[in-house]
Amino acid sequence: MSGIEGIDVLVSEVGPRDGLQSIKSIMPTEAKKAWIAAEAAAGVREIEVCSFVPAKLLPQMADAAEVVRYACTIPGLTVLALVPNFKGAENAIAAGAHKIALPLSASETHSRANLRKSHAEVLDDVRKIAELVRSLPADRRPGFEGNVSTAFGCTLEGPVAEDKVVELAAALMAAGCDEVGLSDTTGYANPAQLKRLIRLVRQEIGHDRLSGVHLHNTRGLGLANALAALEEGVTTLDSSLGGLGGCPYAPGASGNIVTEDLVFMLDAMGLKTGIDLDRLLAVREILKAALPAEEMYGFTPDAGLPKGYGAGGWGVGRAAA
Amino acid sequence: MSGIEGIDVLVSEVGPRDGLQSIKSIMPTEAKKAWIAAEAAAGVREIEVCSFVPAKLLPQMADAAEVVRYACTIPGLTVLALVPNFKGAENAIAAGAHKIALPLSASETHSRANLRKSHAEVLDDVRKIAELVRSLPADRRPGFEGNVSTAFGCTLEGPVAEDKVVELAAALMAAGCDEVGLSDTTGYANPAQLKRLIRLVRQEIGHDRLSGVHLHNTRGLGLANALAALEEGVTTLDSSLGGLGGCPYAPGASGNIVTEDLVFMLDAMGLKTGIDLDRLLAVREILKAALPAEEMYGFTPDAGLPKGYGAGGWGVGRAAA
């Protein structure tokens, strides 16, 4: 379909960062390590393991450096860390993160609420971080991704101008990011809007500079939006195990798309994720045990895999049984 | 996107049939009437209001004839009734249904469980019903739709051969149906499989003979599948208010796609449904009051509409604010 048969899709797990920063419970460091290890063992190749924010703001992330150092010992895993500012980038790099990601909210109101900074102030940080990154020896130089958050609308400002998103994506590249992602922080995106904005941003910054999309399932459109992104040739999709997560500064915007349901969709379609679905589903037990008070989402875990799944009959290029 | 900008989509509400037949509670006739009237008033143009099955099998449908007669008094509403056999068709026609739909399960095991009939026996009924329909004067002749159910897999048999689905769609047309729909009774479908099967069936029976698709959200892929169908040019989508419904003979296969989330997606994309989203969301109160014991699904009702929604900034062809 739409020329995406059999493509390789990178599912980037963001639960340990986006999920854990958005809930009251604080997951013990050992549980975070077990979660990260288990998902990597299930075949997940990239995990955003933490955010380097002051512990007084997000106590859930107080062990960020330790979690990064541990995750970096897992062979083949790309370890991503969110950095809200220069200090966070210094700490993430010191801990050895393979990639750092900085959010720039298309909504300046949300930017001030989230990072306490204007667009200009965030872009100043991006330039300083890019200098620091470039100053490092190649073997210690992390990838540097900028993310335009609230790119599809803001719970504080409402609609966000697409021109503004394109402008900020270009500004992030000009300030020194390697690539730029688009985040539906608030769960406002729809498939038509997503396809349109992906095209507009690529026209501006170059097709291969769009790193991926970060989607939420706030209004149930998460997987439809993921499909739309795939059809536009986007092959990196963020998701969160159990659908944990959201944005603490965007009320109501809870719930990343669910990794389990996303991987089921991709796998059933015959796309390649490298993830073992049964092993992935088993990782939920770690979350349930460590976060007994938190609600977990996802339909596939409750319904189970279809009868005879994997025996053929599903997905592109698979012969019907 | 994909040439579907601004198209008119018919959302066919199936909750009063598929929803109510699948739950233990029996909705009072007056509540059914209030529900149907309220959704029609919100702009829903087609509603599958009941199934003409013996009350001893489905007491939830004991008032089928009365519900059809009432629904037919609502101006502009297309009143659909499910008929499992010839007797049911006679009763539906006597009550004045505008359209009758008969399910033929691609899985013969499911067919025997659901209708106690083999494929051949069901097709015999279809021929008899088609004769009856043709014998009626034009002003009293209902549309006659065949539905290939468990078309994407069966909870009893597992994978279903696509050739079998195509063969049965052709058999339904040959037996006298006006059009044929495809039903993911079990919530097994994925977007690639759905697109492929839509193409295969249309190649066999003719592009304009595929009446629509009936999707479930069992594994969370419901709206992604709906998007895939739209991109194939399918413009009639079944859904159920509050996601009520499923198949009592297919364990675990609960939950039609949620009308509220589907209409939000279509509306946000700039597609035309004729449905007032706020009025549609308000109809949930009728279900909550009449079915206090039943779980209702849907993300949009909990999250609410995006801030500034409708003021522009969303959807194809809408200028960003």
How would you summarize what this structure contains?
Chain A has 321 residues and is an alpha/beta fold.
What is the CATH architecture assignment of chain A?
Alpha-Beta Barrel
Number of domains of chain A: 1
Widest sheet of chain A: strand order?
Answer: 1-2-3-4-5-6-7-8
Quote the beta fraction of chain A: 5-15%
Biggest beta sheet summary of chain A: 8 strands, parallel, barrel
Name the CATH class of chain A.
Alpha Beta
Unreliable parts of chain A: 315-321
Describe this structure in words.
The structure is a homodimer of 321-residue chains. Chain A is α/β, with parallel strands linked by helices. Chain A is 40% helix and 13% strand. Chain A has one domain (11-302): TIM Barrel, CATH 3.20.20.70. Chain A has 12 helices and 8 strands. An 8-stranded parallel barrel of chain A has the order 1-2-3-4-5-6-7-8, surrounded by 8 helices. In chain A, helix 4 links the parallel strand 3 and strand 4 (99-105). In chain A, 61% of the residues are buried. Mean pLDDT of chain A is 92; it is low at 315-321. Chains A and B meet through helix 8, helix 9 and helix 10 of A and helix 7, helix 8, helix 9 and helix 10 of B.
Layout of helices and strands:
The structure is a homodimer of 321-residue chains.
Chain A: E1 10-13, H1 15-19, H2 29-41, E2 46-51, H3 64-71, E3 78-82, H4 86-95, E4 99-105, H5 108-115, H6 119-135, E5 143-149, H7 162-174, E6 179-183, H8 191-205, E7 210-214, H9 222-231, E8 236-239, H10 259-268, H11 277-290, H12 300-303
What structural keywords apply?
alpha/beta, 8-stranded parallel beta barrel, 321 residues, 12 helices, homodimer, TIM Barrel
